[in-house]
Amino acid sequence: MKRVLVTGGAGGIGLAVARRFLADGARVLVCDVDDTALDTARATLPGLRTVTCDCADVADIDALFVALDRELGGLDVLVNNVGIGGPTLPADQLPSDDWRRVLGINLTGTFEVTRRAIPLLKESAGTIIVMSSAAGRYGYPNRIAYATSKWGLIGFTKTLSMELGAHDISVNAILPGAVGGERFDRVIAGRAQISGRSIEEETALGLATQSLKRITAPEHVADLALFLTTPAGRSISGAALPIDCDLQHG
Question: Which residues form the Ketoreductase domain (predicted)?
Answer without folding.
Answer: 2-172
